[in-house]
Design a protein that fits this description.
5-stranded antiparallel sheet, 2 helices, 22% helix
Length: 129
């Protein structure tokens, strides 16, 4: 997909060990708070829980404006949170976050590809050498 007046849609993946009892909605709220510190206005336009009890997930969509190349752009961010428990100790978990950021006009064209990517993320079972 070509850039939109200097902004290229992108995907970022990160994760962290979360030994605390924070729920996925609370972790998603932390992301909103973090963005709000960097931007003047962030709006949560959608949020839904997904997955199962064994593999919970949460998706949220954010809308905000940011300066890109000195020009204000309306951006959309789709964030997916996946909680993965340690198979040996369910009290240990990692939370994986996948983030798509695009301009509002690019968003419909890239969302399905992002969803396809998210569907491929799952824990790997078995030991490797």
């Amino acid at each position: 997909l070509p850039s939109d007046a200097g902004f290229t849609a992108n995907i970022a993946i990160d994760g962290e060990y979360r030994p605390d009892a924070a729920t996925l909605p609370e972790i998603a709220d932390e992301s909103v708070e973090h963005l709000t510190r960097a931007l003047t206005s962030v709006t949560v336009t959608g949020r839904r829980e997904a997955g199962s009890v064994d593999a919970p997930g949460l998706t949220q969509t954010l809308a905000f404006s940011a300066s890109v190349g000195g020009v204000s752009r309306d951006l959309v961010q789709s964030q997916v949170y996946l909680s993965m428990a340690d198979i040996s100790d369910s009290g240990k978990r990692a939370v994986i976050r996948l983030v798509l950021t695009s301009t509002a006009s690019q968003y419909p064209a890239v969302l399905d590809d992002f969803r396809d990517l998210v569907r491929t993320v799952r824990p790997r079972s078995g030991a490797t050498s």
